[in-house]
Amino acid sequence: MPAHHATTPDPPRRRADAERSIARILDAAVDALAGDPEASMAQVARQAGVVRATIYVHFPTREALLEAVTHRAIAEVARVIDAAEPDRGPPAEALGRVVTETWRTLGRYHALVAVNTEQHGAEALRDRHASVLDKLHPLIERGQADGSFRSDVPVAWHLSMLLALMHAAGAELGAGRIGEADAGPALAATILGALA
Amino acid sequence: MPAHHATTPDPPRRRADAERSIARILDAAVDALAGDPEASMAQVARQAGVVRATIYVHFPTREALLEAVTHRAIAEVARVIDAAEPDRGPPAEALGRVVTETWRTLGRYHALVAVNTEQHGAEALRDRHASVLDKLHPLIERGQADGSFRSDVPVAWHLSMLLALMHAAGAELGAGRIGEADAGPALAATILGALA
């Protein structure tokens, strides 16, 4: 720890320290889960280079830690979707861009997705992804309006299929049935085909 | 109970009775789960018109009962796929036929599928469906060979996406986001698009 910790820190500094500590724990949790989906709090602590008690200060249970990691990952995906500009250009092209960028981001999180998929039913998963799916809603509507996407099903159908395909692709990659370089393009083609 | 039960039944008769009893319990379990995915052994017994002890004779735990129900449902789907003749006619047409018939059969089992999806990860689900997916393997290969289905991905990818879309469609129907009459055709179109 840096020397200034020995002096009494002012509250903003203390808050910043806590935030950094939380970020380090969440990063460590992502890495630990990637190595072992059953990773314990002790393994996460080791990975983060902190004592276990430090983790428990912020996350009283492993479940709470998983929730926080998931929440942060979904928020990251939401930012990535915004950056991919879903409202720009032809709908199929825009969706291809969004899927490719999202998939790239998910690269770090496949193990986390697998853990979540195993622990929650379809409805709970959909609820968790509401903030992300909401961002795609206007794009799907736009594509239905101009004939790029099928309009004989509700927008919700397309969004659920997209989510299911994303997660299934992660499982294929995790099981080694497809290579990392092939999975992204295959996923984009599969999703665009499913919606067209 | 019929009167002949009062006499000492010969072993084949006893076996037939046991099989009928098991079938009645499995049917009741399917119906009870459809009404309440958390249905207890007591609810299943009530539905089957037997005392709880009779169920426990055949299924020592609720988990064992769910396994048996799942096993029987998947065997039923396998028979339905055979009857739909996946090897007959153009691959896209054959797959459309198989999907439509499978979906019709799944009508009884959406709650069971939801329970299973909630309890097992993607790999475990895929393993459980191996007997069914194996039946579709030659059809997907045939479609890849004649250009009906994309051949830049392994057959396993197409099969996993198909399974994921089937289950996601069941969830959409269960959540009431699509009607029963629309779900089947929408699913067939989505799957054919995803593979094309």
UniProtKB/TrEMBL annotation, chains A, B:
UniProt entry tagged with the keyword Nucleus: no
Gene Ontology molecular function: any one: DNA-binding transcription factor activity
Residues in HTH tetR-type domain copies: 19-77
Protein name, as recorded: TetR/AcrR family transcriptional regulator
Keywords for the protein's UniProt record, in alphabetical order: DNA-binding, Transcription, Transcription regulation
Residue spans binding DNA: 40-59
The organism's place on the tree of life at top rank: Bacteria
